[in-house]
Amino acid sequence: MSISERKLDHIRICLNESVEAAVSAGFEDVVLVHRALPEVDAESIDLRTSFMGREVSMPLFIAAMTGGHPEAEKINRNLAIAAQELNIPLGVGSQRAGIEKRELVRSFTVARKHAPDAFLIANLGAVQFCRGFTPKEAQRAVEMIEADAIALHLNPLQEAVQREGDTQFAGVLERISEVCEALDVPVIVKETGSGICAEDALRLQEAGVSAIDVGGAGGTSFAVVESYRGTEQLAKNFLSWGIPTVVSLVECARSVAIPVFATGGVRSGVDIAKALALGARACGVALPLLRQAVKGAEGVMEVLRTYERELRIAMFLSGSRDVEELSRSKAVVLGRCREWLSARGMLG
Ligand SMILES: Cc1cc2nc3c(=O)[nH]c(=O)nc-3n(C[C@H](O)[C@H](O)[C@H](O)COP(=O)(O)O)c2cc1C
Description:
Layout: H1 3-16, E1 30-32, E2 49-51, E3 54-56, E4 60-62, H2 70-86, E5 90-91, H3 96-100, H4 106-114, E6 120-125, H5 135-144, E7 149-154, H6 156-161, H7 172-182, E8 187-191, H8 198-206, E9 211-213, H9 222-227, H10 232-236, H11 245-255, E10 260-263, H12 269-277, E11 282-285, H13 287-293, H14 297-317, H15 323-328, E12 331-333, H16 335-343
Parallel strand pairs: 4-11, 5-6, 6-7, 7-8, 8-9, 9-10, 10-11
Antiparallel strand pairs: 1-12, 2-3
Helix pairs in contact: 2-4, 2-14, 5-7, 8-11, 11-16, 12-14, 13-14
């Protein structure tokens, strides 16, 4: 099966099946302390923030999803219209297909065409750099969409349970380091649903990575997606594999000085507020936007505006005037996430 057909398969499964992980992202274990005396006017709350040096309208971005198939062009177009209109960053999906097949480039360039001013994030799989890609391919991905940053994704679980999977990850950190060295745009490293632990976050920071997106467990699960693609039993035994987003976020934010983003099961503005109080600089959302983007840009904007309203209310109720104050407010972590973090020595 070609990469292009596989990409379409992923979208079809994500649209028609229930593809979220068997584990929770953990936001139900996080509580923001309610302030009966907020001492702030809800309407004056400022959601603007800096995203890798660029001012954006809120601490939320559209996480990498697609490209590499003519169908994906429409999806990236609608996501781009929303990103441009709302001034939030947008990540495109893996550009490997565009690098290997000229005719697929349009499904990515459509993002820059419709979001001329948005912060755009290029995307390639980190494992490709163990299989022949060099920093030149990373540079081509950046140039393809005039990107402001590039995300290298880590997806060892997906590769391991996929029939066509690439599991040669030996040397991957060194390859990531070479890309960081060669490129003049920042490099983000992201997981895609299994999370990043404190130890790996530190190694990524040392390798020269500019930001980490934890891509934790609890949202879209590629073990679930692959279980619909013929590796059923193998993938099914990994449905609850991975570090929940909340746990991974705390582990990473406590361990590194570079910005940490939280993606994976972020499903409301309340989740975003909790993630920011736990140390995230911004949150990424994928699946709920994909389901709208196949229909049009309006629905994408509606979901994003709902998150914006909920975030504003959560900030009001926790007495935070702006994102900076929210990030200083204390979140209480309870339940399974607390147990997990305690077992890892990450509390206190
Ligand atoms: C259809 C689909 C395709 C995706 N493709 C990519 C990809 O090419 N590169 C990548 O880094 N992440 C990819 N992701 C992962 C997302 O960026 C995100 O990390 C993950 O879906 C968790 O967020 P969610 O729970 O809000 O969906 C994809 C997600 C979906 C739903």
